[in-house]
Structure formats: structure tokens, C-alpha cells
Amino acid sequence: MSTVAFIGLGNMGGPMAVNLIKAGFTVRVFDLVPAAMQALAEQGALTATSACGAAAGSDIVVTMLPAGKHVRSLYVGDADNKGLIDVVGKGTLLIDCSTIDADSARFVANHAADKGLEFIDAPVSGGTAGAAAGTLTFICGGTDNAFEQAQGVLTAMGANIFHAGGPGAGQVAKICNNMLLSVLMVATSESLQMGVDHGLDPKVLSDIMKVSSGGNWTLDKYNPCPGVMESVPSSNDYQGGFMVDLMVKDLGLSQEAALLSNSSTPMGALARSLYVNHARKGNGKRDFSSIFEQFAPSSSE
Amino acid sequence: MSTVAFIGLGNMGGPMAVNLIKAGFTVRVFDLVPAAMQALAEQGALTATSACGAAAGSDIVVTMLPAGKHVRSLYVGDADNKGLIDVVGKGTLLIDCSTIDADSARFVANHAADKGLEFIDAPVSGGTAGAAAGTLTFICGGTDNAFEQAQGVLTAMGANIFHAGGPGAGQVAKICNNMLLSVLMVATSESLQMGVDHGLDPKVLSDIMKVSSGGNWTLDKYNPCPGVMESVPSSNDYQGGFMVDLMVKDLGLSQEAALLSNSSTPMGALARSLYVNHARKGNGKRDFSSIFEQFAPSSSE
Amino acid sequence: MSTVAFIGLGNMGGPMAVNLIKAGFTVRVFDLVPAAMQALAEQGALTATSACGAAAGSDIVVTMLPAGKHVRSLYVGDADNKGLIDVVGKGTLLIDCSTIDADSARFVANHAADKGLEFIDAPVSGGTAGAAAGTLTFICGGTDNAFEQAQGVLTAMGANIFHAGGPGAGQVAKICNNMLLSVLMVATSESLQMGVDHGLDPKVLSDIMKVSSGGNWTLDKYNPCPGVMESVPSSNDYQGGFMVDLMVKDLGLSQEAALLSNSSTPMGALARSLYVNHARKGNGKRDFSSIFEQFAPSSSE
Amino acid sequence: MSTVAFIGLGNMGGPMAVNLIKAGFTVRVFDLVPAAMQALAEQGALTATSACGAAAGSDIVVTMLPAGKHVRSLYVGDADNKGLIDVVGKGTLLIDCSTIDADSARFVANHAADKGLEFIDAPVSGGTAGAAAGTLTFICGGTDNAFEQAQGVLTAMGANIFHAGGPGAGQVAKICNNMLLSVLMVATSESLQMGVDHGLDPKVLSDIMKVSSGGNWTLDKYNPCPGVMESVPSSNDYQGGFMVDLMVKDLGLSQEAALLSNSSTPMGALARSLYVNHARKGNGKRDFSSIFEQFAPSSSE
């Protein structure tokens, strides 16, 4: 089995690395937080004293970081620091699982290509539950060859592995999807609330729409109206799930992408503004389906 | 078998009445256009010289009309004319299949109830193809008793029969659904085009999103991007299907409903404005998925 | 001097009628609330026992009512009640100062014309302060002749008298204006807050924009950002001024008008949704410039 | 009089530099296009063989460039090239008149400050006509001291000189203003067209709204409806004026700024989407008031 360097052991990265260990890979880890590394060591990982130290000599590098600037700087380095692409051996496959702007992904891919290395952008969805269960979805951008090579590692961590296109395409596809998701959530919320305002039962209305032409993922899996569906955040005071702050981040990335390509996204742009307002009213840490509350009368009304 | 009066024999009503005949009902028809009645007579319908003439003595009345004012006036009458509710016998079931404003549906239902009659608003979806095939979807508003009584007639014309709630609820549920559908269509269009603007293949992006959290009816059944899906209007120069003008009508009904209930529908309201602009640019008779073209560069660019 | 019947003596109508008395008109009043009539009687008005009683024999009728249905019913009557147009004498000028839907205004104007009477829709702006000071703005729809005849009465109550066009045009012009105003308020709020988010002083930014191409009425007279301008609602916790609930009403009228004429108003429709959400969060009785708070971080953030 | 280096002699920069010559400054110019320099030389400018050559030894540097990346690279340089801040003398005042992102302006200001130099971001409005006439508006960001020092040069080129705040504030204030302007234009267009759809005369409606609470710069100076106002682009088939492509650029900058500060700008974001769609339909080179046509029925309807 190959040796995998895993860098970035947060809420997502930690359990992902554990699944690699379980699948039999030799895993070398690095994180700026020592406790995060220690937790992985207890699961059988080898620890390194730097990202470059973990990467050097590994067959595959997997990274999970907060933002594009971290990814750029880690892989490409700067005047004072070497980047991962300066230290890994020929033939090492680079896989970044962070959700970042497409431009940064292409920037790193280009620098990697200059050194003869393959780089895949492979942002994930599925949340911390999916990371622990090994059922994440990966949406990948990169060459066919790199995508094929990555199968072993990715299937050890996820259940659905998509190939969206060349470098950067994974990031683009993910933010297209998440932008669309945000609109589905807002539009489903406003439609359900309008039905409720006219005296309809939201469960009955949901049941009708989900098998009609209004059918969408939020009605199937994640109804935003409290009480309609069990075991979703809306029935648990919007706790857990996918935080408003994370949706705001992804909508920000979608708008960055729209600016880059001079695209018009009236629905996605509106969703972003509504979500930013929602976050600014103190809802950033609640599940993103709580946008439903913006349409419902406040309890004090 | 019961006798059914069918009033309004247009592109939808005509084939619906034919399916009632095929199912064994005695069908009395009326339409202001003689040729429309003649066509039904050739299929075995009895013709009447007025709507009231068709309705009087029938067990069930089915109507299919263009707008709320027609439905109000036909059922309730005015200073000069009797309404259907003045001429039908005790126990006659009234079923209006028109897509109209909820207020008019409730108005007629109330007047019918004053005379001890049951009225169901049962707007349909499925288009002329569904009307001919007998596979329409009916979304009904009315009492449980009326809904049960209507089963025989509705299943002769449709495949899915929903009970949304009391009087008017059928209309509300239908426009909630169609408002949501319009947003799905616009948001899917802008997401796909943004992907294309970044070099992605719209078919690949569609395949990814439809099984991800962006999944929705338009990706499953009605992709708006030319060439992605066979046998849908987008692959046939947006001919056939559900016309922009009809979506504009339904979005108008949705905004009327939002005004009545003082509801906020930012996405639906925006979709209406975009569709009105689209219609004003000469696209009213094209399929509603042609809104995709608003996001794509014009061919001359 | 002429005799004027004034019907509807609320917060606006009361002081308007007082100004007619002060200007020397003989004023006959009616209101469903006896105390409202009593207050006018103390100012020198004659009281009537019904609206028709006040109108019969008057030279001019002025009405100030809440909604289109009241105006229709008062002027045109119904099966059980006579309307004002049935009881007034030949040559009586009818002036409705209510803010209502254009369709109702045209409906009454048509019925009046059938009886040979002139009807003017003359909605006002300027609020209760303008009503008391006699500085209201009237935006009138009606014939040139009727507009000329109305000058005496209107100038006794207002400072600016506009003639927007034929019957209904006063209502249309007013809601076009108020729809535009709502967008100015929202857009100015979001622009100022974005400046503040970047560290700019909102007063400095306001001073720059108001003399630049972003200049608009809200920057000149009604800055929504607390502390920028003295003696406006934003510097008094958004008390007083023009209530959110009234803006929601006017935006509802604007959307009714847009539906009637099949017009596209993306900005106005979005403003309505934002204002409805704002009202639903308990802000209905606050000044409409409080929409600014939707863009600012909540104090607890 | 001081010596001024002027770099970037395009449609705006050229006439601005001429006004400095006319005001008596010694002007050294540089542009990548030799003909542009030659034209200035004929007006009395000294030409340089590089930007650094023009700047070295000058008292003041003025730059007018297309985008943030050009400004960053010119002032700060890179691994291979010195920046202006490396070659100018102590006490040289740096003034960038480009319209760029605030982040780039702050980046350059910080680098300049590290070298003890004052940098002002001073984006302009007023177009090529204002540049030629010396009536531009400058919106400046920088220290009080720098702003004071810049007066002589700026008043030679413009009529209104605003101080918006510290470094970057000029750019922020300008895009706040232009974002607001874009919304004024769209909202005024939709309001006027809705009036027209109801049979109102757009000139009469404009006259009413411009002195009412809907009053704004576009009604005063730049009415978008053809025929209402003479000598504006709408009465000249939307030729001349401020191009749609430039408004799209500024709206892009406004959305970049909104992303940086996590601000919600629903109106500005919607305006951007509408303008991008408008540009994509082949209107990029027309005046930005041509957005009015999106709301009007097409001539063929």
C-alpha cells in the first residue's frame, strides 16, 4: 500500500485521515495543532514536524485547509519557505480537498504541472458525519490520469467520486452546486411559508411538491420547516448540519467565480445577500435551513 | 356510471373529456366554440346549448376555464345570468380544474357551500400531453368527503391525485409548486452557465449536481441547457413544453397570492420579473426553459 | 365659497378637513367614528349622519379611506346601498385622496362618468405633519377640466399639486414614486453600510454621494443611518415618519399594478420582499428607514 | 511650480495631463503607446522612456491605469522590476486616479508608507468630457496631509475634490456611489416603464417623481427613457455616456468589496446580474441607461 501524507487535521481532515489508516495506507500527518496530530498518532498515524516533512517521500499528499491563500502558500511556498511541490518526489500525486476559489486551485495546478506533478482539486461535501463514516462526496478537477490514480485514496474516504473536468473544475462544480443548493433552500422556504400563510399544512404541501415539478433535494432530505421531517436540523432548532457561516463562505466563493468569468447569477447573488443578513443577525452558527425563519412571522408578532 | 358535465373544451379540456368518455361516463359538453363541441360529439359526448344546460341534471360538473373571473361568473352568475350553482341538483359535485387565483376558488366554494354543494378546486399539471394520455396531476382543495367522491372522475383523467387541504388549497399548492419550479429553472440555468463560463461540460456538471444537494426536478427531467438531455425542449430550440407566457401567468398568480397573505417571496418575485422581461423580448411562446438564454452570451458576442 | 363634503376623518383626513374650514369652505363631515366627527364639529364643521347625507347637496366631495374596496363601495354602492354617485347633484366634483389600487380608481371614475360626474384620484404624500400644515403633495388623475376645478380645494390642503394624467393616473404615479422610493432607501442603506464595513464615516460618504451620481431623496432628506442627519427618524430610533407597514401596503399596490400591466419590476419586487420580512420581524410600526438595520451587524454580534 | 509625472495617457489620462500642462506644471509623461506620448509632447509635455524614468525626480506622480494588478505592479514592482516607490525621492506625493479594488489601493498605500511616502487613491468620475473640461470629480483616500498637498494638482484637473477617509477610502466611496447609481438607474427605468405600461406620459411621470421622494440623479440629469430629456444618451440611441461594460466593471469591484467586508448588497448584486445579462446580449458598448430597454416591450412584440 502507498504512503499518504495528510496535512490539516481539523473536524473534517481528522476523520478522513483515520479512514485512510483503516484502509491500510501508511499515513504521515501534520497539523499546526499538536493535539490534532497526537489524536491521529493514537490511531496509528506517523507524525511529522512540518508539512514538507510529511510530504517528502510520500506517494500521495492530501491536504484539507481553510482557504485559498493557505493552499497557495503551502503548495507553492514563498520567498522564505519551500512549497510542497519543491520537496515531493517525481510521481507524487497531490490532492487538495479544501473548498477554495477556483483561481487558487488552477494556480497551484499550474505550478505543479511546471514541476511535472499532477494536482487534483477535490472539494468534499457530506460534512463531519460523512467524513467519519467515509461516505463523503468528492468533486474532482484534474487530468484523467490523475483522477484514476486518486481512486484508491478517495474511495477510502468517500462514497461518490466525481470527475468534473480539468484543474479547478472540482472547485467550480462544487460552488455551482452549493450556490444552487442555497437557492433551493431559500425558494423552498418561501414557497412553504406562503403555503402556511394560506392555511396549508407544510407537510402536505411538501409531500405534493417533492413529487411534482418543484421537487428538489431540500424537500427530499432537508426540509427547512420545523416539524415536517424528523432528524433534520429544522426539527432540532436548526442545530447541527451545515452552518450559515459556511454557506456564506461558499456563496462568497460562488460570487468570486462569477466575477472571474463575468457570469450573471441573480438568484445566487440574492441568496448570498439574504444569508449574509441572516448571519449578521446572529445566526451564523445555526444550520443553513434556518433561513426559513426569515420568512416566518416572528413569534412575538 | 355517473353523468358528467364538462365545460371548457380547449387544448386541455378536450382530451380530458375524451378520457371521461373512454372511462364509461356519460359526458355532456359545452364550449363557446361550436367546433370544439362537435369534436367531442364525434367521440360520443352529448352536447348542450349552454353551460347551465349541460350541468342541470348531471351528477358531477367539471370545468376548465382560462381565469378566475370566468370561473366566478360561470358558477355564481351575476345580475343577469344564473350560475351553475343555481341550476344543479342537490348532491352534485363541482370540480374546477382551471388554474386560477385562490381567492376566486374560495369565493366559489363559499357560494357553493351556501347552497349545500361541494366544490373542489383541482388545478392540473402535465400539459396537453398528460391530458391526452390521462396522466395529469391534480392538486385538490376541498373537504375530505368531496375529495373522496371525486376520485372516480379524477383518476379517469390523471395519474396523481393530491389533496392539499380545504377549499382554495389546490390552487395555493399548485402556485407554490410552480413558483418554486420557476426558481429551480432560473437557478439551474445560471449555475450551469457559470460552469460553462469556467470551461466545464454542462452535461458533466448536470450529472454531478443532480445526484448532489443541488438536485432538482429540472436537472432530472428538463435540463435547460441545449444538448445535455435528449427529447426536452432545450434540445429542440425550446419549442413545445410549457410556454413562457403560461409561466408568467402562474407567477402572476403566485404574486397575487403573496399579496393576499402578505408573504415575502424574494426568489419567486425575481423569477417573475426575469420571465416578464424574457416574454417582452419576444419569447412568450417558447418553452420556459429558454430562460437559460438570458444567461448565455448571445451568439453574436 | 363652495360646500365640501369630507368623508373619512382619520389621522390624515381630520387635519385635511380642518384646513378646508380654515380656508373658508363650508365643510360637512362624516366618519364611522363619532368622536372623529365631534372633533371636527368643534372646529366648525357640520356633521352628517351618513356619507350620502354629507355628500348630497355639496359642491365637492373629498374622501380619505383605507383601501380600494372601501372607495368602490362608498362611491358606487351595492345591491343594498346607494353610492355617493347616486345621490350627489349634477356638477358635483368627486375627489378621492385615498391611496388605493389604480384599478379601483378607474372603476369608480368610469361609474362616475356614466352618470356625467367628474372623479379625480388624488393620493397624497407628506404624512400627518403635511396634513396638519397644509403642505401635502397631491398627485392627481382625471380630466383637465376636473383638475382645474379641484385647484381651490387642493391648494387649501397642499403645497404641490401634480396632474399625472387621466383617471387612475394619480394612483399609478404615486405608487411608481413610492416603489422607487423604497428601492432608494434599501440601496442607500446597503451602500452606506458597505462603506461603514470598510471603515468609512457614513456622514462623509453620504456627503459625497449626495452631490454625486448616487444622489437621491433619501440622502438629501431622510438618511437611514443613525447619527448622520438630525431630526430624521434614523436619529430617533426610527420612530415617527412613514411606517414600514405603510410602505408594505404601497409596495403591495405597486405589485398589483405590475401584475395588471404585466410589467417587470425586479427592484421594486425585491424591496417588497425585504420590507415584508422586516415587518414580520416586528418592525411594522417603525419608520421605513429602519430597513437599514437589516444590513448592519446586530449589536450582539 | 512642481514637476508632475503622469503615467497612463489613455482617453482619460491624456486630457487630464493636458490640463496639468495648462495649469503651469512641468509634466513628464509615460505610456506604453508611443503615439499617446507623442500627442502629449506636442502639448508641451516631456516624455520619458519608462514609468520609473518619468517618476524619478518628480515632485508628484499621477497614474491612470486599467486595473488593480497594473497599479500594484507599477508602484510596488516585482522580483524583476523596481516599483515607482523604489525610485521616487523622499517627499514625493503619489496619486493614483485609476478605479480599482480597494484592497489593491491599500496594498500600495501600505508599501508606500513603509518607505515613508504618501499615497492617495483618487478615482474620478465625470468621463472623458469631464477630463477634457477639467471638471472631474475626485474621491480621495489618504491622510489629511496628503490630501492637502494634492489640492493643487487635483483642482487643475477637476471641479469637486472629496476626501473620503484614509487609504482605500476613495475607492470604496466611489464604488459605493456607482453601485448606488446602477440601482437608481434600474429602479428608475422599471418605475418609468410601469407608468408607461399604465398609459402615463414618461415625461410627466418623471417631472412628478423628480421633485418627490423618488427624486434621484438619474431623473435630474440622465433620464433613461428615450425622448424625455434632450442631450442625454437615451435620446441618442444610447450612444456616448458611460458604457455598460464600464458599469459592469464597477459593479464587479463593488461585489469584490462586498465579499471582502462580508457585506450584504441585494440591490447592487441584482443590478450587477441584470447589467451582465444586458452586456451579454450585445449592449456592452452602449450607454448604461440602455438598461431601460430590458423593461420595455421589444419593438417586434
Automatic annotation (TrEMBL), chains A, B, C, D:
Could you name the active-site residues? 174
Please list the residue ranges annotated as the 6-phosphogluconate dehydrogenase NADP-binding domain: 3-165
Record InterPro entries = 3-OH-isobutyrate_DH-rel_CS, 6-PGluconate_DH-like_C_sf, 6PGD_dom2, 6PGDH_NADP-bd, HIBADH, HIBADH-like_NADP-bd, HIBADH-related, NAD(P)-bd_dom_sf
Key word Metal-binding present in the record? no
Superkingdom as given in the UniProt entry: Bacteria
State the reactions this protein catalyses: 3-hydroxy-2-methylpropanoate + NAD(+) = 2-methyl-3-oxopropanoate + NADH + H(+)
An annotated Gene Ontology molecular function = 3-hydroxyisobutyrate dehydrogenase activity
Q: Mind telling me which Pfam families this protein's record contains?
A: NAD_binding_11, NAD_binding_2
Question: Which pathway, per its entry?
Answer: Amino-acid degradation; L-valine degradation
Supply the EC number(s). 1.1.1.31
Q: Where is the 3-hydroxyisobutyrate dehydrogenase-like NAD-binding domain?
A: 168-292
Q: Which UniProt keywords apply?
A: Branched-chain amino acid catabolism, NAD, Oxidoreductase
Picking any one GO biological process from the record gives: L-valine catabolic process
Query: What family, per the record?
Result: Belongs to the HIBADH-related family.
Q: What is this protein called?
A: 3-hydroxyisobutyrate dehydrogenase
The species this protein belongs to is Shewanella piezotolerans (strain WP3 / JCM 13877)
